[in-house]
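Data availability (excerpt). All sequences and predicted token strings are deposited with the supplementary files. A representative entry, DUF1145 domain-containing protein, is shown inline so that the format can be inspected without opening the archive.
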Amino acid sequence: MRAVIIIGQIIFSLIWILLLANLVVPFPGQAFGLFVLLLGILVVLHLLQMLIFYAAFHAHVHPTGKDYGAIFLFGVVGWMMVLQKRNAGTPRA
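Structure token line:
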């Protein structure tokens, strides 16, 4: 599971870098508009994931600001990170 999380973090980091680079150095032609649209969709979806995570797990997991930051940056991979971190600290019977 750890390898999946690391690979997911790398992929999402590259996606964020690519989308934000478009704002600094606009890509030629229609690509600029497409990448701005994709950035907007990514932000909205990750905010939605944060809200879903809060609604589903806030009473059980007690997430911190770092946890919400991880979910915003890495989406479902951030979710997996938070849950794995919390489960590692929970003794199993």
